[in-house]
Design a protein that fits this description.
One of its GO terms (biological process) is anaerobic respiration. By secondary structure, this protein is α/β, with parallel strands linked by helices. The protein is about 35% helix and about 15% strand. Among the domains are: about 235-340, Flavocytochrome C3, Chain A, domain 1 (Alpha-Beta Complex), CATH 3.90.700.10; about 430-560, Fumarate reductase/succinate dehydrogenase flavoprotein-like, C-terminal domain (Methane Monooxygenase Hydroxylase, Chain G, domain 1), CATH 1.20.58.100.
Amino acid sequence: MKIENKKRLHTDVLIIGGGTAGCYAALTIRENSDYSVIIAEKANIKRSGCLAAGVNAINAYIVKGRTPQDYVDYAKKDADGIVREDLLLTMSEGLNRVTEKMERLGLVILKDENGEYVARGNRNIKINGENIKPILASAVEALPDVTVLNRINITDYIVEENTIKGAYGFSMEDGTAYEIRAQKVLCATGGAAGLYRPNNPGFSRHKMWYPPFNTGAGYAMGLKSGAEMTTFEMRFIALRCKDTIAPTGTIAQGVGAKQVNSLGEVYENKYGLTTSQRVYGTVMENLNGRGPCYLRTEGISKEQDESLRKAYLNMAPSQTLKWVEAGKNPSEQNVEIEGTEPYIVGGHTASGYWVDTNRQTTIHGLYAAGDVAGGCPQKYVTGAMVEGEIAALDIVKHLKEETLGGWMQQDVMELETEEAFAKKIAEYNHFLEPKREQFRTEALEEAMQKVMDNYAGGISTHYQFNGKQLALAEEKIRQLIELTEGLNASDIHELMFVYELKERLLVCLAVIAHLGARKETRWHSFAENLDYPEKSDDWMKYVNSKYVDGKIQILYRDLVEKEAPYEHHD
């Protein structure tokens, strides 16, 4: 087949990604202005992004007796200081506000006999959240002058003189190529899964912690356009229930289950209680012959059994089904745990775009929010919403200023270039033209995952790496990038797979460069550098990067504190 149909659209604001941050940003823009919005979503906003299957708790909330600064301190400690305090504070200050907004939209938040939210630990509250994404999506679809383009795969930004002008993509439904021109663009595409070989092989490889459809598209588009990125070396490795890869926090916090080894010894305090240390401790106990490792649930009450079974039905039903299949409740058998493959995700760690306090990237008019925005770890669902809100309010502010200054719609029309759009369509058709191919997309993807697993700190190497391994990883990833030009897509669905592979490979290059650039081991397992096994105060700084002339150029920046919010300077 061949792409022949094309559409040009114009809007005030283009939101790429209709997940948590993207939807909340659209709500905020329309509540504070009359600007038009287009949401371009690769799937369907009713069930897309990290909220697709629902959640059973709000993991970022300021409970009674706590303050936003407490949350900043927690996230900073967990990331061992490599955070943007200005981003963390502005995010934390909005957590309760967006939670209350979601409740007004219909989200069920559990309450006690006094009408207070039921807390789960120091920062969490319990919800019935199976339908949290449909609630958010329905609110967006009801907005006037908001166009939702479902099943649109955005592949490239349109950037002129370091200013965003829109994006290119294609429809998964009918193969129409799209050029969407916009005055401002918000990237809310999420992080990157599928870079490394996952826990489960073959048919079950989709059983992973992070959505397998999040391929790092936003990161890749930013890199190709010259945006600055930050902290890709702080990979996220989730500690999860074995095989189902279901969350462990529900068990650890919900019933107070401790991490124990095969001897029944509690080992979590031995290694530390930060997110990375919990993973590291599990790896080390297995390496030292004291595995398997578990969350100790044996002996919990029948009420707690029932609570856990219901809780997992809200977000990871495979875990409930595993208990049913085994014929044993959690109280009768400890839950075995393992680490996942590494992910690049700004919602749990600090990886992503380098942004200012208002979430604008180093490309003028391009914003980032949610998992794709760096510097602000532990944001979770509500933090992503807050970042969408912060970006949206700044977008509205700047649009109003620019309109007063004479920035008019016809200026966008004058910037259109038929030649650039035609070139992009030709690129799509290059992969759709029948040709003798040496490799298929799936084979190259598996090769990429094997390279990253073996040479860039994957599961098979216990998340460890050294400089020579990283050099081999880069060499082999570059070879795979060259091979992608010979790929053939028989239809639009396969064309999407080609672009997802290209996105992942570029993100792999950035990850490899970042892992090598931080010459210390600050986060065990997340970045376990065998050449530099100790932590050093010399590395209390950010490792940033840009993609220049086909190479990842590393930049170092000083830490930003909340008292001095960071703003870009040309």
